[in-house]
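Table 4 source record.
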Amino acid sequence: MAFENKYDLFKVITILYFVNSLVEVTAEAYKYKEIVYITKPLIPLLLMVLYWIRSTQRNTLFFLIMLFSTITNLLFIPDDKTVLFYGVISFTIHRLLLLYFIFKIVEIKKAIPFVLSIIPLLLAFFYLFAASDVPDNSFYLIILHNVMAAVLGALAITSYVVDDNKRNSYLLISVLLFLGLQLIIYVEKYYMSEENIYYLRPLAMSVNALAFFAFYKFVLVSEKVNIKPI
């Protein structure tokens, strides 16, 4: 297929991204793991292609974040505790890079709203942590995840409240979806691990696809307005 310009290619890949996401959610619902192994890693990989086409900066950190998202997605497919542990390690690296990347774009202008936002988020995540059966080998990693999730959520909420603009709107949407995704994974893997809740994985992948697309839009808007160099 020949494309007249990059925008035509961008439209095709964007459609492909959402079609792939829909196929992935359906495959998760019906437990077609052969399809899941193809569609799940394609979500961050297609975003890499979209970012390469649309970005004026092509920041290496974005590609690293998506790379570790791809690895995490693959390691979270099998129902195996050892593989899950390596998935948690990959997810930890992914989340650290994500947090660092966002902090390079958005700075905390007011400390008090940030602190007030982080406290309820910490309480919510640590309540689930206390009520869950977390493996010993993942104990400290899950604590770190909870802290990072609270910091990320507080940063997005504070930025949006202090300065309601397009960039911060995309950030808030993506972070709220990321927190929802972490909550769903947490409930599935640890809180209700003994129960067969068939709708949790399709729900998680729906949230995952939307969260990363919103994050991709946040990065593009940040580069265009050039509020703070990345």
